[in-house]
Design brief:
With about 350 residues, the protein is an alpha/beta fold. It has a single domain, classed as TIM Barrel (Alpha-Beta Barrel). The chain has a 7-stranded parallel sheet. α12 links the parallel β5 and β6. α10 packs across α11 and α11 runs parallel beside α12. The longest helix has 25 residues. The chain is globular, with a radius of gyration of 19 Å. The two termini are about 25 Å apart. The N terminus is likely disordered. The structure holds coproporphyrinogen III. Belongs to the uroporphyrinogen decarboxylase family. Pathway: Porphyrin-containing compound metabolism; protoporphyrin-IX biosynthesis; coproporphyrinogen-III from 5-aminolevulinate: step 4/4. Its main location: cytoplasm.
Length: about 350
């Protein structure tokens, strides 16, 4: 990354940001800290607002409410970055697929199981449908302290495709994987559509004021190595290229959850500024796998965060000891769990800040 590129994204108001410094390859005595799913049901103020909002998607598409929810954890914990409150499934929604969030069960989509059913999707993403999301980005950026970064995001094409084909996540990746073997051209066409849609969605968030974007690949870790490169790494690399073609120097974080031994090949293929490590990743191996100028993000165990006390301190200290001598963004290895006592997040932030 050339210095000129860094200047393109480090605006005056954000150049003091620990988070953006880490993304520019700086090693810092006090590294930045934020948490995946830092807004959400473990916060009483979220549950209260959520109860007034109707459905989860209504919350995502109402800028007043989504702005408030994005800022809730920043007010409480003084984290280094806010992440837009939205969901990875707004992309299939804006491609014309039915998306519902079922209370206590998670997302449900009308599965698109075949090439013929893909024809029901729009040929490109309807960014107009997502205008409230970009308005939320602009409002959050305007309200956020200048020292804090705002992260936009999308799901990786493979992860989003597993929901679109299977109708849900988890074990039901099987439908997407079966389609990838039985009709690779059809699956590739869906992935290609998602590359274009995701790049456009990320660019719109950057245009609206996001300082960096993260690509969440929650399910590709289960793929065998060759399929992992085809369906996870290559499409994510293509998104990076499309985003940077329009915005040179755009800061991009990639989170290939569960990549494990495939991390080295992923880091070689994907030109991300930071790579997120899931809870089970071996940090020593990750150091070797990822070039030293690329920031690592992670990977405190979200279960240790639920327990707090000395177990949490030890988990944070382990990350700092293993990765503190290179560009680092302290985070969890996956999202904050619902049963997490909010005080434990305050404890984690204090432990990181004490590092300096
Ligand atoms: O990190 C943040 O705080 C930003 C907002 C955010 C949400 N989802 C809000 C949300 C982000 C970045 C996501 C990403 C996301 N969404 C992923 C990738 C990361 C991961 O967790 O693996 C995935 C796979 C999804 C799809 C999704 N959305 C699932 C599986 C669920 C149900 C799980 C659950 O906890 O309910 C959702 C719903 C969802 N997305 C909630 C939140 C706060 C809970 C909705 C509610 O309040 O009822």
């Amino acid at each position: 990354v050339s210095p000129a590129n860094n200047l393109a994204t480090l605006t005056p108001e954000t150049s003091g940001s620990r988070f953006l410094k880490a993304l520019s390859g700086e090693t810092q005595a006090v590294p930045p800290v934020w948490l995946m799913r830092q807004a959400g049901r473990y916060l009483p103020e979220y549950r209260e607002l959520r109860a007034q909002a109707g459905g989860f998607l209504d919350l995502c598409y109402t800028p007043d409410l989504a702005t408030e929810v994005t800022l809730q954890p920043i007010r409480r914990f003084d984290l280094d970055a806010a992440i837009l409150f939205s969901d990875i499934l707004v992309v299939p929604h804006a491609l014309g697929q039915e998306v519902r969030f079922v209370e206590g069960e998670g997302p449900r989509l009308d599965p698109l199981a075949s090439r013929a059913e893909f024809a029901t999707l729009k040929p490109e993403i309807d960014l107009g449908m997502l205008a409230p999301v970009y308005e939320t980005v602009a409002r959050v950026r305007a309200e956020l302290d200048p020292s804090k970064a705002l992260i936009g995001f999308c799901g990786a094409p493979y992860t989003v495709a597993t929901y679109m084909v299977g109708g849900r996540g988890g074990e039901e990746q099987a439908p997407a994987r079966k389609l990838a073997y039985s009709d690779p051209a059809a699956f590739q066409a869906l992935i290609d559509l998602l590359v274009e849609a995701s790049a456009a969605h990320l660019l719109a968030q950057l245009e609206a004021g996001a300082n960096a974007v993260q690509i969440f690949d929650s399910w590709s870790g289960d793929l065998p190595p060759a399929e992992f490169m085809t369906w996870s790494a290559a499409p994510i690399a293509a998104i990076c290229a499309r985003v940077r073609a329009k915005r040179p120097g755009a800061k991009i974080l990639a989170f290939p959850r569960g990549a494990g031994a495939k991390l080295k090949a992923f880091a070689e293929a994907v030109p991300a500024d930071a790579i997120g490590l899931a809870t089970a990743e071996d940090r020593r191996a990750a150091r070797e796998a990822v070039p030293a100028h690329v920031a690592l993000q992670g990977n405190v165990d979200p279960i240790a965060l639920t327990v707090g006390g000395s177990a949490l301190d030890a988990a944070v200290d382990g990350v700092l000891a293993d990765l503190g001598d290179r560009p680092l963004i302290v985070n969890l290895g996956h999202g904050v769990r619902q049963e997490t006592p909010p005080e434990h997040v305050a404890q984690m932030v204090a432990r990181v800040r004490r590092a300096g």
